[in-house]
Amino acid sequence: MIRSALPRSAKLLAAALGAATLFAALPAQADPSVRAIYGKDNKHGIEKYGVDLDFDSGFHWGNPEGWFVNLDWEVALGQWRSTKGTNRQNITEFGVTPLFRLEKRGGSWVPFIEAGVGPRLLSHVSTSNEHYFSTAFQFSDMIGVGVAFGSKQQFQMGYRFEHLSNASIKRPNPGTDLNELYLRYTF
Fold it and tell me: Could you name the CATH architecture of 8-25+33-186?
């Protein structure tokens, strides 16, 4: 068996850059945006720092001046900093998630709720001896609320709850629950 000399985090970064390049080739109507995220799981001692690239899928339904649903594709790259446990280890996370958003349009401030489920790949299977996942492949499910504002609602801030686990593919499966705050800018 031939093993790659590159560490897992370098492979994940290469995959993220490849996906970002692929999504950057989308047409101009894709309305790309960038999101900066900070999250925390107090139970397992994890701080998450992330950067997501979001792209409008082109799926829209509803009244552009009232209730409106759209679908974005989120390409996520995050770093988990372990703050608890023995033999602590930081983790790099990469994933893609279809993200549905229900907005109440018509004003200068646009409130929304959003939800999505997508696959994640982790660079390591543990943040400490006490928090071991058993698989690097995980699922992320999230739900959140926020508000868009600005002349074209190009600024957004929000809160989301994100749960990651391997859906009991293999045990142990402790999962992690992150409370996240984010800022997003749409170009």
Answer: Beta Barrel (2.40)
